[in-house]
Design brief:
The complex is a heterodimer of chains A (342) and B (343).
Chain A (H helix, E strand, L loop, with lengths): L5 E3 L1 H38 L11 H26 L3 H7 L3 H42 L12 H12 L26 H8 L52 H42 L11 E3 L6 H30 L1
Antiparallel strand pairs in A: 1-2
Chain B lengths: L5 E3 L1 H38 L11 H26 L3 H34 L1 H17 L12 H12 L26 H8 L52 H42 L11 E3 L6 H31 L1
Antiparallel strand pairs in B: 1-2
Helix pairs in contact in B: 1-2, 1-7, 2-3, 3-7, 4-7
The chains are: A mainly alpha (342), B mainly alpha (343).
Chain lengths: 342, 343
């Protein structure tokens, strides 16, 4: 008893083939979109790899690029088969490949499910990488003369300006790091010497932040230095002042950006999975409808199409017995070989 | 003697009609492009209208939008006529309108050329608008409590950050105005009172710039205050310090941005004009070749197409004569009316 059989006449078959051909072209476009999303994601990771200590995992974008290319290829082939399906001569050369092709499509769908899952799960890895990378970035902010780190200041400044954030978790992270290079500190000055000595590690710490933390929306000119000292500035209370500098941390800002990007890509891949499944079902119906024509010579005869030749349970038990026989044949061959040797 | 005559048989006429139809669809896309460029330019002007004192001229983007819409509609009409030109019955209903249509197209092409020219010339008024607007913008930087100007600070800061510029001509413009609001100045402090007293207008001037002038590429943390005082900062010489703040003036930066945009739009409009001229010529050939078939009943007969029915000189003298006769006609009518009223 076939699974979900449908009766077809010539008109229905033609309509199915045309509809399926159009659907395959949409799937090719979806494949191209996945490919370009993968490239975009890769570029975005590269742009800020300094913030992530050059340690970020490119697994997800690489997978997306691969999957996009595969999707394009498979769907273009499927579209070609659909286009030729209405001509019995052309279709007969594709017929033997169809079973393998459908199996390939099935495993490709499984791969797509995996990719979509990864898009949601790898966000944790991105969060951890960002947390570590940003803490290093703040530490290396002052090293504008060290090769390999000389652009850290610029990158961090531009990130803070672009993402409207300050520090790792909040602006106080800047109070714990020396972000002014020793080259610009007058070590002969008493104030400087006191500050450096008052610190266990001999660092020049202050309650100030870089200019890139400043919020342009503040009504007053930016207060960067002596942030916690109310008396240093006229009419200033650091506890109630909200608009002076960005209050959000860069970890949160960057993570929300990347997580929304990855979630949107994940949702789009789910949509692509649904599209691919519909394509597979349609192709299965088309191929079975063309195989079971009552009179092969008469193109206008009736035929029947189905999703599975037997019911779901029977197909499953068939598969299991096939796997078991494969295993048993190996064992038998193994048994034969030692006998042949002795 | 026709200008640039070409002999046509049926095959050639069909090919011509198909090519011109294809070109008309490209021309429709070009019209859409001109329309979207006009919209984009209008939006960009609106975004920064605060910096131009809300005084900027929207003449050019409005003209581009209008030209884009007209181009789309006449090209769609032209495409339809070309499509129908191969069917004599359908073509017969378009035929009487074609002469007016072609004259209109020629006029439209001239207008497109004028638009392209304007794109290059409007840079000059823009320079003045920007100079004045930016000067006022900087003056109102501190007025974050005045309704209507409270966002000037944010707009100016964001602009300086985005365009990598500082001040009108350079960063010293900030030294000449008070950009810290009086609300944040402690008037009981002697230092503040001295500074205000030393100034004729009673303004609190200082050799400092806002944070948005800072250059992130500078190797040292940004020096915004006491910029001309070398001793105020360790190892600092304001004459040689290049990377501390942005050196470029915002008028220069904005002008080059808008100037570049207008030049690109002007170049594209010139290309669109050439395309339009091409389709007009093609349509004239289609029209003339279908108008004088050797044997009107036989669609496969030979015909001749031309650009102008007579030579350029003769066509010109014809037009002049027509205009003179129109002028004489109205004079004669006036004379007759006068005679009638008198008698």
């Amino acid at each position: 008893m076939p699974f979900m059989p449908v009766k077809f006449n010539l008109q229905k078959r033609v309509k199915l083939a045309q509809g399926l051909w159009m659907l395959y072209w949409f799937s090719v476009i979806a494949g191209i979109l996945i490919f370009s999303l993968g490239i975009f994601f890769k570029i975005e990771l590269r742009k800020r790899s300094e913030m992530m200590d050059n340690n970020e995992s490119h697994l997800v974008p690489n997978l997306l690029i691969l999957v996009g290319l595969l999707a394009c290829g498979l769907n273009a082939f499927g579209g070609k088969v659909c286009h030729d399906s209405l001509d019995p001569i052309k279709f007969s050369k594709w017929k033997p490949m169809l079973k393998t092709y459908l199996l390939l499509c099935c495993s490709f769908n499984v791969l797509l499910v995996l990719v979509s899952l990864l898009c949601f799960l790898m966000q944790f890895s991105v969060y951890l990488t960002l947390a570590e990378g940003l803490s290093y970035a703040i530490r290396f902010y002052k090293d504008t003369d060290t090769p390999g780190r000389c652009f850290m200041k610029r990158t961090l400044d531009m990130t803070q300006i672009e993402f409207h954030c300050c520090g790792n978790n909040n602006f106080r992270d800047w109070f714990e790091v020396q972000w002014i290079s020793n080259r610009y500190l007058d070590m002969s000055n008493d104030v400087v010497k006191d500050r450096v000595l008052s610190n266990v590690e001999g660092k020049y710490l202050m309650d100030s932040v870089p200019f890139s933390c400043c919020n342009p929306g503040s009504p007053r000119p930016c207060i960067q230095h002596h942030l916690t000292n109310n008396s240093a500035h006229y009419d200033y209370d650091h506890r109630t002042e909200e608009l002076n500098i960005w209050t959000r941390g860069c970890l949160e800002a960057l993570f929300s950006y990347y997580s929304s990007l990855m979630s949107s890509i994940g949702v789009f891949v789910l949509f692509a999975i649904i599209l691919e499944s519909v394509d597979m079902a349609g192709l299965k119906y088309l191929s079975t409808a063309l195989e079971t024509m009552a009179e092969p010579e008469n193109p206008e005869c009736e035929s029947e199409g189905w999703l599975l030749e037997k019911g779901v349970k029977e197909t499953f038990s068939d598969l299991l017995t096939k796997l078991k026989t494969l295993g048993r044949t190996n064992q038998v061959e193994g048994g034969d070989a030692p006998e042949a040797n002795t | 003697m026709a200008l640039l005559p070409v002999k046509f048989d049926l095959k050639k006429r069909v090919k011509l009609a198909q090519t011109v139809w294809f070109m008309y669809w490209f021309a429709v896309l070009a019209g859409v492009l001109v329309l979207s460029m006009g919209l984009f330019f209008k939006i960009e002007l609106r975004k920064r209208s605060e910096l131009m004192d809300n005084n900027e001229s929207h003449f050019l983007p409005n003209l581009l939008i209008l030209m884009g819409l007209i181009a789309c509609s006449i090209n769609v009409f032209g495409g339809k006529v070309c499509y129908d030109s191969l069917d004599p019955e359908k073509f017969a209903k378009w035929k009487p309108m074609l002469k007016t249509y072609l004259v209109f197209c020629v006029g439209f092409n001239a207008l497109l050329l004028v638009t392209a020219l304007l794109c290059f010339l409007m840079r000059i008024p823009m320079q003045f608008t920007l100079a004045e607007g930016l000067r006022n913008g900087m003056r109102y930087y501190k007025d974050t409590d005045t309704p209507g100007r409270c966002y000037m600070k944010r707009t100016l800061d964001l602009m300086q950050i985005e365009f990598h510029c500082c001040g009108n001509d350079n960063y010293r413009d900030w030294f000449e105005i008070q950009w810290v609001s009086n609300r944040y100045l402690d008037f009981s402090s002697k230092e503040v009172r001295d500074r205000i007293g030393s100034n004729v207008d009673g303004q609190y001037l200082m050799d400092g710039v806002p944070f948005s002038c800072c250059n992130p590429s500078s190797p040292r943390p940004c020096i915004q205050a006491q910029m001309t005082n070398n001793s105020a900062h360790y190892s600092y010489d304001h004459y040689t310090e290049d990377l501390n703040v942005w050196k470029r003036g915002c008028r220069d930066a904005l002008l080059s941005y808008y100037g570049g945009m207008m030049s690109t739009i002007g170049a594209l409009v010139i290309l669109v004009t050439m395309l339009e001229a091409g389709v007009t010529v093609g349509m004239q050939y289609v029209h003339s070749s279908l108008s004088n078939l050797a044997n009107p009943e036989d669609p496969e007969s030979e015909s001749e197409g031309w650009l102008l029915e007579k030579t350029v000189k003769e066509t010109f003298t014809d037009i002049m004569d027509k205009m003179k006769s129109m002028g004489k006609g109205s004079k004669v009518e006036e004379g007759e009316a006068a005679v009638e009223t008198v008698s």
